[in-house]
Amino acid sequence: MDGAILFVEEIGEAPYRIDGLLAQLRLAGILERLSGLVFGQFTDTDPRPPTRPLGDVLAEYAAFVNGPVARGLVYGHVDEKSALPVGVRARLEVTDDDTYLLPHPEVRLAVFASGSGTTFAALADAAERGTLGPVEVALLVSDRDDAGALGRADERGIATARSRPEAGDHAARLLRLLDAHDIDFVALAGYLRKVPPPVVDAFREQMLNTHPALLPAFGGQGMYGRRVHEAALDYGVRWTGATIHLVEEDYDTGPVVLQQPVPVRPDDPPQTLAERVKQIEHRLYPEAVRLFAEGRVTVDGRRVMISGTRGA
Questions:
Q1: What φ, ψ does residue 93 adopt, rounded to 5°?
Q2: Three-class SS of residue 286?
Q3: Single pTM value for the model
Q4: Which of 33, 160, 250, 280 maximizes the CB count within 10 A of its CB?
Q5: CATH number for domain 107-306, candidates 3.30.390.30, 3.50.50.60, 3.40.50.170, 3.40.50.80
Q6: In sequence order, what are the beta bridge partners of 261?
Q7: CB atoms within 10 A of CB 143
């Protein structure tokens, strides 16, 4: 069972049965990885001591679980205020005296956009639907006062800010802006400016970009939008596609996170090809952000590994 959620709900004989239950599942080969643990509330009313402290049990399985999702665990305390609502993402905190599930903070996402904002809207709408994972789209940054993305952000009640690359001390001002909004992660969505190296460094492996081709093909400085599709058609490729990649100091050179090919039709003009690729980008980008927010991505040099999926 890969990627299951184990429900441990009011086990009758108190916490020490969890240890035996999890061990039996693993030894039987039924359980390979947990994507969450759902607990009820345990108390210390049972006089029989656990075979091992509950904290030890759960600490062992914390590395085995991709982000506990829990109603709440309070061992040794009968305090309803400490329990979490059903479905709240939680983090496990083990102390010498006790074990708690605490609310897991959402990832606060800033999106950078220069254009109409359709990719920004795809991310914001995914967050609204709950399919972006534990992510709040907290800020829209644009280098253009007339960018359509600004209006889309205003419609959704999302804070906006202008970047001014032509002004001095651009990197420091961007870093102060992101810090003021408590930003954890950045997504470039049709942002046509080069992100200053200090900002890239501050968000190393926490900044993504989308590109409308299968990198490393048709990438680099000046390759964006219609230009990319014209280059693909001029070259005569049979397949193009969409790439979500990590951001490095140079254009379109970061490790690839997700890619999906799109066939090129013999009679394709750039605009129809662009529309089909954009549809894929709008699906892949929220998926990539969700994978990072759920802690399922590991980067090793140029290789990006995704846990919890077959073949990763």
A1: -125, 120
A2: helix
A3: 0.68
A4: 280
A5: 3.40.50.170
A6: 241
A7: 17
